[in-house]
Amino acid sequence: MTDKNTSRRTFLQMTGVGLAASPWLAACATAQSTSIPRRAQGMPWPNWGELPETPPGPPKAGSVGIAVVGLGGYGIGKSLPAVAEAEGTHVAAVVSGNPEKAAKVAAAYGLPDDAIYSYDTFARIAEDDRIEAVYIVLPTGLHAEWTEFAFAAGKHVICEKPMALTPAECERMIAASKRANKKLMIAYRCHFEPYNLKATELMKAGAIGAIQTIETTNCYTVGTATPADDWRLVKALTGGGALEDYGLYGLQATMYLTGETPSKVIGQTEWQTEDPRFTEIPATTRAEIHFPSGAVANLTTSYNMPGSNTVIATGTDGKLIMDPATYYDGNAMKLVKGDAETVLTPGASSVQFSRMVQHFADAIRKDVEIKTPGEMGLRDSKIIQAIYKSAQTGEAVTL
Ligand SMILES: NC(=O)c1ccc[n+]([C@@H]2O[C@H](COP(=O)([O-])OP(=O)(O)OC[C@H]3O[C@@H](n4cnc5c(N)ncnc54)[C@H](OP(=O)(O)O)[C@@H]3O)[C@@H](O)[C@H]2O)c1
After folding, report:
1. pLDDT for 4
2. Whose CA is nearest to atom 10 of ligand 1?
3. Active-site annotation holds for 371
């Protein structure tokens, strides 16, 4: 890819001559005037996401009523359908800063007008017994605050990934959950996706021997958007960029496949600050991730590379190739041992969304231990920060 102005070498030279030259600080300095602000506000109809043709039927007895906060692409396209589809949950309310959009979505889910909340009226959900839990589907920079508001209203919370911008924010969310004595789950859908579950099982059973390397890619090309019209390019709303948003899938895969957490990371960011898309965040982040067993992963994630979503694990006895690895649907996987290739089809990837939400309901109703708790989001946030710290200092960071 073209790396106009900040190769690793030049980046390190810049940090060597003083932090004032750091793209991170330059990004912070220029972040205010042209960016979407870091506050909850309504947005237009998203560029994807379908509404149901007919409203879902009445909830089953004991079903958990969930308010979905943020009616963007993912909220409309995946979160609402998953909540409606899972046996043990139903859509009880919507929360949005766009009243027309909220009314349309509420009608499609058969909700009465008084089940539509705005960001200004959100606190009133405390008195609404139809709502037991809140699903936060807002930009990342708003996750901590709105999770705290939801706990303050006495509700359980499932929060989209990445959990928050920093480990400190993640800790605030966990503390709020404990204070409220309510569940907190991070919506890491791949922990409920058949291909990723099968891959984890195979690695645990030693299907490729001892894992030596894992290569992950999570890349796509952001269109013509800028920080004025896409929160994913706004540092205060997205954090560091592609790593939190998309590379997180690769990072997570390295951990559930090895069954380990990293002992050391070496990060590298590539900046293209002359490109209007990347004035606040790096275009690409790479990381070398070392595990206690000796396995080493190489992660590449970018908003400026052709689409790619792969995980390739190589062990002493073979190779597991997942391509695509973590899509919403249609993942593919094969096991290679010598000349033999076995294609594996463990099930429809699309079940991951409703299974995840069902797990949240089981945690609430049956006190099942949450597979993807706030502590997992905190762990990941710490690793992400370590990768960025390494990129800034040019030194490996030990965890
Ligand atoms: N698990 C996954 O595979 C996956 C995939 C995509 C996204 N996500 C996560 O889902 C969350 C939302 O992503 P998305 O793709 O749905 O984003 P999106 O399409 O941009 O929608 C975000 C929605 O958040 C609300 N919002 C409130 N304040 C906002 C602000 N200052 N700037 C922008 N939006 C604001 C708006 O809803 P209203 O107009 O209703 O107020 C907006 O439509 C993020 O945490 C993202 O990481 C997860």
Report:
1. 33
2. 137
3. no
